[in-house]
Amino acid sequence: MNQPTADSRTRILDAAEALFADRGYEASSTARIAGHANVPKGLVFHYFPQKIDVLVALVDERTFVEELPDGSGAAVEAVPGDPAGTLSRLARRLPLHASPAMRRILFREADTHKSVRERLGRLNSEVFLRARRALELAHPGARGDQARLEAAAATFTAVLIYQENLAGLTGQHIDPDAVAELIARALGT
Amino acid sequence: MNQPTADSRTRILDAAEALFADRGYEASSTARIAGHANVPKGLVFHYFPQKIDVLVALVDERTFVEELPDGSGAAVEAVPGDPAGTLSRLARRLPLHASPAMRRILFREADTHKSVRERLGRLNSEVFLRARRALELAHPGARGDQARLEAAAATFTAVLIYQENLAGLTGQHIDPDAVAELIARALGT
Amino acid sequence: MNQPTADSRTRILDAAEALFADRGYEASSTARIAGHANVPKGLVFHYFPQKIDVLVALVDERTFVEELPDGSGAAVEAVPGDPAGTLSRLARRLPLHASPAMRRILFREADTHKSVRERLGRLNSEVFLRARRALELAHPGARGDQARLEAAAATFTAVLIYQENLAGLTGQHIDPDAVAELIARALGT
Amino acid sequence: MNQPTADSRTRILDAAEALFADRGYEASSTARIAGHANVPKGLVFHYFPQKIDVLVALVDERTFVEELPDGSGAAVEAVPGDPAGTLSRLARRLPLHASPAMRRILFREADTHKSVRERLGRLNSEVFLRARRALELAHPGARGDQARLEAAAATFTAVLIYQENLAGLTGQHIDPDAVAELIARALGT
DNA sequence: CATGAATGAGTGTTCATTCAT
DNA sequence: CATGAATGAACACTCATTCAT
Questions:
Q1: C-beta separation of A64 from A30 below 8 A
Q2: Is residue A39 over pLDDT 80?
Q3: Taking chain D, what is the end-to-end CA distance rounded to the nearest angstrom?
Q4: Among residues C37, C61, C85, which one ends one of the domains?
Q5: Does the residue A31 lie in any domain?
Q6: C72, C185, C177: which is closest to C134 by C-alpha?
Q7: What's the pTM value of the predicted model, to 2 decimals?
């Protein structure tokens, strides 16, 4: 991920990614970023006119929320009759392509920086949509219970996001498979 | 909340609470806090030798996690046979006594300041314990299913904490009553 | 003017006055001002939140345009029948109380900084009003020639201000007494 | 003035002229000049090794002080017996060929940059010489009054230069025709 | 106990200038 | 000729903290 001969811009982003994840955006000075990247201070501002642009570039270029094309059921790999397994698979493949460092940044800076918040909001929607679709497909009988199905999808989304965000901080750990099974039961006949 | 004759220390904490909630700990200078509190700059350091001590004092004195005495079932107001209602009541009375401002501070500064993180961890445990106990009491039949019951309690905790922390940011809103009902169904029969 | 034990604020203003006059406002860095004043860099901003406030304070506190109370003829020391002498005296006592350094600053920074421009405008008006009143009093006969009298006052103002501002730069020097005599002749019978 | 196919050097000077007039030399960065001129940053330094050379080139190439060949009376269009008219014509045709932007630059940067100051000094001398010659020619009788004539020429020069430089700033406006008439009267019998 | 002047390292940012391509 | 990445000193300004009074 960090080529030995990476160009300066890449090295700056690499350094920022590591520092922002480690100590937060505010506490990572541009001078320190430049130092870590082994480039002169001024070069940071050549590529990123303002410090915030470094964060924006990171979120833009190094996080990707895999969005489901409308109507495609295949992508969720839903198995009719097996809602628990379907959700478990979703938990194992969160539609977020990002390094562990970028994941920390995404959650940590969300409430101070709009661009980060938006990306996080998209992740949230996408997880919710996938969970709902997975449940719809896996559970074809439950027609009348749209509201319950939505609550189940929202609950599963909360667990997944909570896991990424707070579980480490609070020491709480949840087994997504157990939650998947729980929700399957709740929607079961 | 801010008596006309509040003493200096209280006025400093009031100002810090408002500023930390509004713009974050890092972005609130001690000078600004003093200004808001209408006290001279030096006085802040008279009461709080270091800036971080202001945050620690706020968390210590202005957030309180109501902890359940061991074995007391009364406090959760569990109704045997009504797990959904029991959880709903828990959702409505999160065992966290803190102003909305302090709640924001608790979540925002959690991953940078240990003392805040600890308080948040206690809240998390307490919610989990209450949810578990509530389910145990409300659901006396489900003896054999200890693991499932724990997953249910953890799920409910995740939803409640997620609600406080991220729901506003991501635009996702969850009805805790619906989740309570869902979990009750999952544990049913 | 520069006491050996002058307090810090005064020393900062002294240093700024000298530097602004010597090299201009833009070219005088706050660090250099602090160095000249022998105070730490930060102290400049303790007294003057922004660099521009140093200039504003200088203009406010160290230039003074002596304004004529309405209707007072005594102040101009006009001698009826001696317009030339009256104007000469005005030239010798420009109603501007300011050090030579402050005079340079006043003219040099006028077109970039509003507060300076306003002070300069006041000086200009005051000189014009005094010249006009002097001529009115010294020249009681010239009733019908209000327009010519105004042109004469404006001309004299231009010469005085030009003298302060550009004469040194361009190498041109004018004898105000000769101009006074010229104008007196122009208005003469 | 700005041909569609103007070469890079011309475009750089055009941009610098506009920016220097608008915000001053110091406040106009070379990067901004390049941006306005739509040329790469490095090119500015290809044509002008130092930033100051841009200003020097502007003054050299875009301001011109029309200098009177010695002894030529025709150029001032002096009319013997009509000193007022002769001066009025001089006022209307200041021997300075320069755009309004260049005029601002000339006065604004005069006291910080020698080359500008010299050009301004030449303008000043030229106006003075023309005024003096005009008065000599228009007023052939006034031989004995060389001193008074010089004062009159200097006065007229001051009014003209003041007009260009400060009148706008201070709000004072002078009618050169009225001044011309005033001076003519002063030199009259 | 109260005060605000003093301190100096650090912050984000700008900029003229260089130079390899 | 043309280019834009690279450089590093300098800039205005912030800040937690100290301390004499």
A1: no
A2: yes
A3: 49
A4: C61
A5: yes
A6: C72
A7: 0.89
Q: Let me know: does B133 contact B68? Beta carbons within 8 Å.
A: yes
Q: Across residues B145-152, what is the average pLDDT?
A: 90
One-letter-per-residue 3-state SS of chain C: CCCCCCCHHHHHHHHHHHHHHHHCCCCCCHHHHHHHHCCCHHHHHHHCCCHHHHHHHHHHHHCEECCCCCCCCHHHCCCCCCHHHHHHHHHHCCCEECCHHHHHHHHHCCCCCHHHHHHHHHHHHHHHHHHHHHHHHHCCCCHHHHHHHHHHHHHHHHHHHHHHHHHHHHCCCCCHHHHHHHHHHHHCC
Q: Indicate whether C146 and C101 sit together in one domain.
A: yes
Count the helix, strand and coil residues of chain D and give each as a percent rounded to the nearest 5.
70, 0, 30
Give pLDDT tens digits for C98-110. 999 999 999 999 9
Q: Considering only CB atoms, which chain C residues are within 8 Å of D172? A: 124-125, 128, 154, 157-158
Using DSSP, state whether B96 is helix, strand or coil.
strand
- For B42-93, the pLDDT digits (tens) are 999 999 999 999 999 999 999 999 998 766 555 556 677 788 998 999 999 9
The reply to whether residue B148 touches residue A181, judged by beta carbons under 8 angstroms, is yes
pLDDT at D189: 59
Cα torsion at C96, C98, C102, C105 (round to 10°)?
Answer: -10
Q: Does a structural domain hold residue D2?
A: no
Q: Letter for the amino acid at B117?
A: R
Last residue of a domain, one of B28, B44, B61: B61
Does A41 share its domain with A88? no
Q: Is D179 part of any domain? A: yes
CA-nearest of D110, B132, B125 to A166 is B125
Closest-CA distance of chain A to residue B4, Å = 33
Q: Round to whole Å and give the CA distance between B120 and B63.
A: 10
Residues D94, D165: one domain? Answer: yes
**Are D102 and D156 a contacting pair, CB within 8 Å?**
no
The number of beta carbons lying within 10 Å of the beta carbon of residue B153 is: 23
Smallest CA-to-CA distance from A155 within B91, B92, B127, B178 is with: B178
Residues D85 and D135 both lie in one domain: yes
How far is residue C4 from each of residues C10, C31, C43, C48, measured CA to CA in Å? 11, 21, 19, 22
How many folded domains does chain A comprise? 2
Interface contact C185-D182, CB threshold 8 A = no
* Contact predicate C39/C74, CB 8 Å: no
Taking the C-alpha atoms of residue A39 and residue A63, their distance in angstroms, rounded to an integer, is: 24
Q: From CA B161, how far away is CA A183, in angstroms rounded?
A: 19
Residues C35 and C83 in one domain: no
| Cα(D50)–Cα(D115) distance, integer angstroms | 14
Residue count of chain A: 189
Helix or strand or coil: residue B127?
helix
Tell me which chain A residues have a C-beta less than 8 angstroms from the C-beta of B165: 165-166
D and C in touch (3+ CB pairs within 8 angstroms): yes
- A47 and A70 housed in the same domain: no
Is strand F in 7 Å reach of the CB of D8? yes
User: Is the domain of D43 the same as that of D77?
Assistant: no
Q: Answer yes or no: is B129 within a domain.
A: yes
Q: For the domain that residue C35 is a member of, what is the CATH number?
A: 1.10.10.60
Q: Does D64 have pLDDT greater than 60?
A: yes
The whole-angstrom separation of Cα A154 and Cα B176 is 10
Residue B36 CB lies within 7 Å of the nucleic strand F: no
Q: Is-contact D54 D120, C-beta < 8 A?
A: no
Range of the domain at D27: 8-62
| Residue pair B134/B76 in contact by the 8 Å Cβ criterion | yes
Mean pLDDT of A143-157: 88
Task: Kindly state whether residues B39 and B128 are assigned to the same domain.
Answer: no
| Rounded distance between C-alpha atoms, residue B61 and residue B126, angstroms | 18
